[in-house]
Amino acid sequence: MASVERATRFVDYFVISGLEDSSELEPDKLSGDTQQIHPLERPYKSKVLAHFPDNVPWNAFDENAIGMLCLPKGLSFKTQWDSRQPKFHSFLITREDGSRSYGSALVFYEEVTSKSVLETMQTLFKMHQANTAVTFCLDSPEPGRKIMGSHREKQASFDASRDKLFVSKCISLITPLPFVRSCQQLLQQLYEAAQKPSQLAMTLESYVFNLIYDVPLPPCGCSMKFFGCSGPVCVLRPSVGGLPLFDFSLYDMFKLLGVSKIVQLFKCVLLEHQVLLYSSDYQRLMLVAEGITALAFPFQWQLVYVPILPASMSHFLDAPVPYIMGLHRGPNCSKSQLVLPSEANMCFVDIDNKKIDIPEDLPNFPYESDLAMELTQVLNRYQNLIGAENMSSRSHPTTPRRDFGSRTTSSTLRPDDGGGGGSAGSWPNSPKRKDVLQQSEAWQKISSLAKKTGVWDSIEEIVLEDSASSISNKTKEKECISSSIALEQESGMPSSEINSLKFNSSVREIFLNCFVHMFASYENFVINPSQDLEQWLSNRETVHNFDKAAFLSDQPEAHLPFLSAFIETQMFTTLMDSKIVSQWEEADPSLRLFDARIGKLKDTASGEPRIITYNPCNTIEEAEVYIERRAKNVNFIASKAHEIASHISPSQYVSGIFPLLSKELLNSEPANSKSKFRENAKWRRKDRQLQHKEHLQANSEADQQESEVAERQAKLWVQYMRLRKPQVPDMSQTSSIAQTNWKFVETLLKECKTKTKKMLVEKMGQEAVELGHNEASITGVEENTLIASLCDLLERIWSHGLQARKGKSAVWSHLLSFQEIQEENKPVEPKLLTPGLPKRNSLIDIKSLVDGSFTILGRSISLSNLSTVGVDSEKEQSHVKGHRRRGSQGRIELPVLRPMPKSLMADMRKIQQMSDIHTEVGKTRALIRLALERKMLSAHLKHLLADTELLRHLYKRYAFLRCEDEREQFLYHLLSLNAVDFFCFTNTFPNTVVPYRVLIYPSTKLGCSTTSANVWVSVAGQLGETGVMEVTKSLLEHNFENKNLGVLTTLRIGHDNTGMMPKWLVEYVLVRNELSGHTYRFSCGRWLGRGVDDGSTERLLVAELMHHTIDTEDEVVVTSPPRTCSPKSPRKNQDANAGLTDIQHNLGQAVNNLVKHFYKPEKERGNITFLLCGDKGLVHCMEQVFQFGFRSSRLFRNKMFIWDYMERLKTFFENALAGNTGRTLSDVYKAGYWLFCDLVGKINTASDSVGKDGKFQVFICVGIRKRCLHRWLPLMASTAVTGQMYEENSFLRNPTHINFVMHILESLTEFDIPLEASLLRGIDLDL
């Protein structure tokens, strides 16, 4: 482990992989069935032929992993007609403790000399020809034969006696740090040296020995130069306080995908979606994977990370966990040919075609437009510097090709111009131009014509002229290369590499600047524990490390969708864990840099606590200067190679064949290697002793610091992260596949338990705190985030172990299959008879048809009495009951709220009928939200999974859904979500047309239950209002469809007071959302009509969500509590019995509820209309205040209302303003009197149908909104009208009591209280 002994060398291992000469050709069994593939395109098993040294203590050699990653698709074969360009790619290996080692590989082709391999390939080709499908065209005069296959298979052929066979081989370097550029240069020089052994000054063993043992790992913050076979190589290692080492070209990545697609991919990575990269070039896969994760600094990807997925591990695409994987594109392959389990939560990146498919509803990144603008500016600035260099370095001579698949040149090395004896412009070991021309019939005809006309005498003249010009060009090119090498030795790193490093640094600084702005105040919300480190690690899963609700409440509204999802990811949680651990141990270097940048931003902002405005990155120039200074002034030069094998001559090497090298020489480390490093070190500064001391001190301090950090990280990750971070194990053995799939099942079940528990705790709020959970609250954005993550989890569960993919959503595909089966085999329910003859597996006894009856579930039903069995569900919904009398009792039949269908198919049909959802993923999420809101999610999924035959057809045996015990636990966790109420469907689809059902329940007493007037209703919710809707006369039920109203708040009911008996006593009204099933009760208990109660012909009722209903077999009956008072004015008689203390308590509680409402986050607030006008709301409490001591109950026998008192006050105030009272009024009194009279007058003229109590309700609400009510109370108390209509012990005549009311109402003046339009009835608030 790295914590035991640290790496001190630049290279840990030099590895050679390929085909062993003495072994037989073996197919790669883990790559699946390849019998239908051409033998030259099949993958074959490769082996590690040699590695040097045998082992190093800080990095154990993993032969299986390195062998798969050096040749990810195994051995590949080509003939002399195929392009055999050497290709470079890098890779990484992740150990169990989270540490990594890095590899760089160069793959090239060598001619096969083994007779057994040639014979095997010849046999395989003949077998493939024999197995190729042949069809005969029988319609033609002669049966013609047609070979089925692709265009390449038609032309591909192999004849061992005629063709040359080439096999892939790989040389690679395993390093402790990702020095990609330098390793690519070293491997290229070694490969070119092996192609031209006659030009070698020393043996290859000497160069490899120098690379392994004589080149040290450069210290942090220093640059180093060392030497390969033909030229120097420079590396630059960042300092501890800077950005981590990154040696890929971000410029290439941006050119491949573009700024907009990079930002989209970046968001998917941050939100931990499944990311699948797709390219025909392995290096492109590594480039994009490493580049996009490096841009996430200081956050680190914590989940499955396989940038290059070997062909033998392709089944890991089925993994139901977030991952970043790279998949190699085969010849003539496309995305449509891939077998992907689900694409609902996947980001698919087709690198070669510059396409990206992202998940739906991906939120915008904070400062996204500013980020894109800065990136575009940097890209344009470096385009002239880097673009021209890349174009010149990637030019290749054209070669004859027979591969019609897609080819890439982004990581292709320039071929050797003279290797293998070929002429100019040919690839190594390719046929000479002269031989090719002589075999061409067209060339022979042209040649004969040219000879006759005297243009040339022979083909040799053309070849020689071309060779002479190419030799001249090569001579000039070699002179330029030698001069540039000499210049580089003096000046340090080449300018092209410096510009690439500077571009990388600029882009990474811009992304870091965005994170600094987003989390500038994150330290204020970190929850530091009171335990020690050991206790905190043991309890980590049960404690919170970040106050998410408080952090989100402090962020801009536009940033909430992204931030609320991002703070739930593991990469964010890990950084917060590191922040907490820093209170016991030294902070991680990445965290220190992040905190330092935040401090610098705050200093620039002059200490502003909140930084909303985005400031462009101002650290780019400083970073560029640092890179250029370090790159041009090399700190350390390693010793050059020297001959170690005097008994071996380079002339012994075979041209075009890379030798296996000598184990005796390369596995023996020199005893004085460490001292040799220091002796051969040459420093470029004048004061060599001072520079040597500085180097040793920097190296020692950096090594010690990195060692301490590594030990702490190892300690932390071993105890904590190993349990949280899913790893992809070694799949070289098929026996481990079952164990890995079982781990996936356990991970999914654990994640389901965690998510459901979190949703419950967040939703329960204070109740969860009382049960012992940490204090937490939930906002609208947080709830949507949690539910969206639950939808993603269900998609991953349904994607695990799929037999075949059908569409983007695995859940919806399963539902469609289930629906198809149900519609083909639809059972008949006892009360719902489907037309037509019964189909297979029906519950109807067909034999009973001859007797004129059905037998359904054991019950015999006569065909002559089918009308009594039931009706279609749609007819049931439209069937309503009127004021029909029942027998001699004289009572009407009350409407019945029948239960909604609870079947999965019914809810699924509702979703399919929604016109504003068009994708499978959208329909799946809508169904999950609807089922969650209806508390039917667990029941629906249980019903879906009960069809075991369908499960066996759709899923493999190891799939999560086929593990019975885990499936039952999964459904149990989902069942726990029924304990809380969700409105995730109602609040998410505001444009959906929703059916509603209104049921009116009048009093059943004689003379109170019917009305001759025309009744109307108007329903309002948080998202809209219906307007006035007329109810059919003599009916108590009204069905309507309207754009989603959201959570219902108020209902206004009234009539036009026409007919012989218009007076009507309404007990309550029920309204049900026919999509979600939410039922709202609007309590009334008041008369509608003139000359009764307060004379109101309309009432404003406040909604109350019904949590409990009585479900019976036939219907849902909603009962109201028995009445104990007169129906004429129940509220007034009840309020008259309230005592002084009770009234004060109720008023204080109502005001306190309003204050709490406004101190909650806006997304967390409920219905303020209920707090104002609902039961024990502010209006009710103020009515108690005005009723207390009111003389109407004793003197006027319930004929006087509070509004009568208000109208008398209005008359008094108007007389006072007119000067008829003989009193001189101050300006304060005049203003108060005028505002009071104006409001009362507007209320009286607004609507004649509103009764006196309704007008008083509007008066209180508007008075509170305009902050006038507490100022009117002393004006009202000082009038003679109050003395006439109130007793001495009333609130208005007792100074102490009136001061109490004034003081408590004054606390509401700091809030802007919104009022619904349905409450105001058109009153203009601009007083």
From TrEMBL:
GO terms for cellular component: membrane. SUPFAM superfamilies: Lipase/lipooxygenase domain (PLAT/LH2 domain) (SSF49723), RUN domain-like (SSF140741). Pfam families: dDENN, DENN, PLAT, RUN, uDENN. Residues 30-586 form the UDENN domain. InterPro entries: cDENN_dom, dDENN_dom, DEN5A/B, DENN_C, PLAT/LH2_dom, PLAT/LH2_dom_sf, Run_dom, Run_dom_sf. It is found in: Membrane. The keyword Transport does not apply. The keyword Cytoplasm does not apply. Residues 994-1102 form the PLAT domain. Its main location: membrane. One of its GO terms (molecular function) is guanyl-nucleotide exchange factor activity. Residues 781-990, 1169-1320 form the RUN domain. Residues 389-434, 669-707 are annotated as: Disordered. Residues 676-696 have a biased composition (Basic and acidic residues). Keywords: Membrane, Repeat. Belongs to the RAB6IP1 family. This is DENN domain-containing protein 5B.
